[in-house]
Design a protein that fits this description.
The chain is about 45% helix and about 15% strand. It is of the alpha/beta class and about 900 residues long.
Length: about 900
């Protein structure tokens, strides 16, 4: 009976005729399904035919052996990067079986390096009783031979020929596509290679019958009629995908076609996959996108890579905060991000003080056993387990990582790893382990032409058929280029060549397209966008031989956005469109000249005032009512984050605290009039204010006692909600040495000023809170320092870091610019304490006295009446002061939209 190589022009139809009790070998599971047989691929067949005692190496173990050999051949180079560079050439070398031959000294340098790597790599695997799947075909044992039918392959490589020769018994048939054209020269060479080993060549040519046969024949130049085929041009890729999916949805809903009878094909899955997924979701279509992506491109992989990067840099503030801030894992709920924003932790110790999750802090130190690192990684992944309930792809990614951990435990649990070793190992997993881009079952499927080799579908849509995308340009290997391959082929000899040449690569692409043309049974549609990015496209030259008619673009409204766009232009009622119209009216009014309404803070009804006001609140309200309303009533202020270069509020908090500790320590130690001692105390007090421990000296311990006895206060009613205790974290900023020198100079200059400690005054209280009534408004405040004068009256002092104090309340129609803090504090504290307050001063630059001007009572009464009127009428429309000071430190510009819009409102 013998073994037969059947060269024919209708491989699919012929395979159906020959399917018998023989095992069928196909290139993919779809080709097997078309024949109604179980799927058996060449790789599976090679594993079945391995001699006893050998098995194919697991992915991570194989990768680890490869890294070891790369490190031996290229010492000092990053093994992981070199693996990514050389591995494609290595696998091509193994598939060609070149590692089994002595090629002599004539190899090009790069080929010699690949050969040395292949021999060492294969030998190390063999010592483990394993082989790489790329070379398993060369070890096939003849005692596993059976009667087999091999079909669906557009071309066979050398390793496949060797495997089939060993695994196919008498009665076996290998079907290869063929016509008397140069395109099929490689298949003729394959047939002759098998013929030399006892196979018989049989040629068969039939008239094309099915649509696929006629398409394939026409592409080769035959004059045959085509029905149900055409090409369609769309403005861009999104329109193309929408049009194709709309037609597919019409076939499913109106023509009764099953989703698995339709296939979407593209040569560039990565370009079209996310777009198809997004548009299908809008159209309520289920899609299955099977191309593989590395774990690093999943959400879980990205998160893990961010964590490794943060650990590698010793948990820096920005990178660690971004890592922990991902909201889908349990770590996000195990700590307080607001605390970290204020404290700016940098390093493990700081993060521990900031309340970081235990999973972040339990990292093994130094060179720990691999098992310890893997235990930590397992605990970390347990905190991210909830992601698997959100997306099937993430569930698969988590499963792959856990399987990799189990495999690593078996391989080398006691191997010592440093953090760098661990990061490289896990990084290798993230780059080499893959998951489907969008896994699932059922629905429409997006494939490359490779997935449909030997398969069939009733309706086929081929997307992105533009020049440069179909066919894809032939490209060189990054390590072993075509010139080196030609040199190796010349040494090895034989036909077909051992390594694929540029000419063969071009023929492989064409054969794949020819095979794809045989897949449709009812309709075939080629689609292409007119533009890609900012460039115009042209149709693929491969479409010209088919001479397909241009099809009209039918405006199917198969997704909600397209339907709503149509409804928006008409009178039809629809809830989402109604909401869109209402939102549009709001925006139109906000941007127009109409007076402000509730969406701009003009509520039109009374708004409950706060229980009490602070000076900062009243000043903010006068500067812009909308700013007060947005921050205080709506809670729209941004997070209170300590900047790397602190803002004026944080700077003021630290300097105020340092002066408080300086004077408390001086008062307790008796150094109040000694300016030299005050300057030294100021240095220790500044360090204590930012969290450092004072030195073990008399002055240092005086500051320490003052800090322990008087903790930093928390101010709940300042305009910026600043927490004075956050000054304790400024000392951990990277630029603290520069800031310390600058701030210490300011403090020491201040305490040496005559105005800082007048001869007729003595400090009696610091950071004093009070409350009372001012012009009918309930107010509270904090006084930085209170001095007792020689005449028994009090002087209120407020520290300012600026050279002079500008009036706080801006000019309005009913009053000029005026200072509010001094008259308010002087009046209300006198009521609060029952004592005489004869002075209220600012110490500018912390030590230069400046008296604020007190105006006539009519100004203050007008201001208080205006404040009450704002709340009685709910008038919080944006109205910043003319100088724009209110906008300088306001973070509500995205809500207020200040600029020309406010000018139009003012008319």
């Amino acid at each position: 009976m013998g073994r037969v190589v059947l060269l024919c022009n209708r491989p699919r139809e012929l395979a159906r005729e020959l399917v018998t009790a023989a095992e069928v070998v196909t290139p993919n599971r779809y080709a097997a399904a078309a024949l109604g047989v179980p799927y058996l691929g060449l790789d599976s067949l090679a594993r079945e035919c391995l001699p006893s005692g050998l098995s194919t190496a697991r992915g991570l173990a194989r990768r680890r052996v490869l890294r070891d050999n790369v490190a031996t051949l290229w010492p000092g180079e990053p093994a992981q990067r070199v693996c990514q560079w050389v591995e494609p050439a290595l696998r091509r070398w193994l598939r060609a079986g070149l590692h089994t031959r002595d090629l002599g000294p004539g190899l090009p340098p790069r080929a010699s390096e690949v050969d040395a790597l292949a021999r060492g790599y294969v030998a190390q695997l063999r010592r483990r009783g394993e082989v790489d799947s790329a070379c398993a075909a060369w070890l096939a044992a003849g005692d596993r031979a059976r009667r087999r039918l091999v079909t669906g392959f557009p071309r066979l490589e050398r390793d496949a020929l060797h495997l089939l020769d060993a695994a196919c018994a008498d009665g076996s048939t290998v079907i290869l596509p063929f016509a008397e054209l140069p395109l099929f020269a490689d298949n003729l060479a394959c047939a002759r290679w098998l013929e030399a080993r006892g196979w018989r060549i049989d040629r068969r040519r039939d008239e094309p019958q099915s649509l696929g046969d006629r398409l394939a024949a026409r592409w080769l130049g035959a004059d045959v009629a085509l029905d149900g085929c055409g090409r369609q041009t769309w403005p861009d890729a999104e329109s193309e995908v929408r049009g194709v999916l709309a037609e597919a949805k019409r076939l499913i809903l109106r023509a009764g076609v099953r989703a698995d009878e339709i296939a979407l094909v593209t040569r560039d899955e990565r370009a079209y996959g996310p777009l198809v997924s997004a548009v299908a979701a809008e159209m309520d279509l289920r899609v299955h996108i099977a191309y593989a992506i590395p774990l690093r491109e999943t959400r879980l992989g990205w998160w893990l890579a961010q964590g490794l990067a943060a650990l590698g840099e010793d948990l820096p503030y920005e990178l660690t905060l971004r890592w922990l801030g991902t909201r889908w894992h349990e770590l996000a709920d195990a700590w307080d991000p607001a605390n970290a924003l204020r404290q700016r932790p940098n390093g493990p110790d700081d993060w521990a003080r900031a309340g970081a999750p235990p999973a972040l802090l339990g990292v093994p130190s130094g060179r720990a056993p691999a098992a310890a690192w893997l235990d930590w990684l397992t605990a970390l992944l347990d905190t991210a387990a909830s992601i698997q309930h959100e997306h099937a792809r993430e569930a698969l990614a988590l499963r792959r990582l856990r399987a990799a951990i189990d495999e690593a435990r078996r391989e080398a649990p006691g191997t010592p790893w440093s953090l760098l070793d661990f990061a490289e190992e896990v990084g290798d997993w993230l780059d080499t382990l893959t998951v489907p881009a969008q896994p699932g079952r059922g629905g429409l499927e997006l494939h490359t032409p490779l997935a449909l080799l030997g398969a069939q579908r009733r309706h086929l849509f081929v997307l992105g058929t533009t020049e440069g995308a179909l066919p894809q340009p032939v490209s060189d290997d990054a390590f072993l280029d075509f010139r080196d391959r030609e040199a190796v082929n010349a040494l090895v000899g034989g036909d077909p060549p051992a390594l694929e040449t540029a000419e063969q690569a071009a023929r492989r692409e064409a054969l794949m397209f020819w095979s794809l043309l045989g897949a449709p049974t009812e309709t075939l549609r080629f689609t292409l966008p007119e533009t890609a990015g900012n460039s115009a496209t042209s149709p693929s030259a491969w479409l010209a031989p088919l001479a397909l008619p241009a099809l009209p673009r039918e405006p199917w409204q198969a997704d909600w956005p397209s339907w709503r766009q149509t409804v928006l232009r008409g009178d039809q009622r629809e809830p989402v469109v109604d909401e869109a119209r209402r939102a549009h009216c709001v925006e139109w009014r906000r941007e127009g000249i109409d007076s402000p309404d509730a969406h701009d803070g003009a509520l039109g009804h009374a708004f409950a005032p706060p229980k009490h006001y602070s000076v900062s609140q009243l000043t903010a309200l006068a500067s812009c009512p909308f700013r007060w309303f947005g921050q205080r009533a709506l809670g729209l202020s941004g997070p209170d984050e300590t900047a790397a270069d602190p803002d004026p509020a944080a700077r003021g908090s630290a300097l105020h605290r340092a002066l408080e500790l300086t004077l408390r320590a001086a008062l307790a130690a008796g150094f109040l009039r000694d300016r030299t001692a005050l300057a030294k105390l100021a240095e220790h007090a500044l360090d204590a204010a930012v969290g450092a421990d004072p030195p073990d000296t008399a002055l240092g311990q005086a500051v320490a006692r003052a800090k322990e006895a008087h903790p930093a206060r928390r101010s709940q009613d300042a305009d910026r909600n600043d927490d004075e205790a956050r000054a304790e974290w400024l000392g951990r900023l990277p630029n603290w040495p520069r800031l310390r020198a600058e701030w210490l100079g300011l403090l020491q200059r201040a305490v040496r000023q005559p105005d800082f400690m007048p001869e007729d005054a003595a400090p009696v209280a610091f950071e004093v809170g009070f409350g009372g009534d001012w012009r009918g408004l309930p107010v509270i405040g904090f006084i930085d320092r209170i001095d007792r004068l020689d005449d028994g009256s009090l002087a209120l002092l407020d520290y300012k870091t600026a050279a002079r104090v500008a009036p706080g309340v801006p000019e309005r129609e009913d009053w000029p610019r005026f200072d509010l803090q001094v008259p308010l504090y002087q009046s209300v504290y006198a009521q609060h304490s029952g004592e005489t307050v004869s002075q209220a001063l600012y110490l500018c630059r912390l030590g230069e006295a400046q008296t604020a001007k007190v105006l006539d009572d009519t100004v203050y009464i007008a201001f208080a009446d205006w404040v009450r009127r704002v709340f009685d009428e709910g008038s919080f429309a944006p109205d910043p002061d003319a100088a724009g000071n209110a906008c300088r430190y306001c973070d509500l510009d995205a809500v207020c939209r200040r600029g020309p819009r406010l000018d139009r409102k003012r008319g």
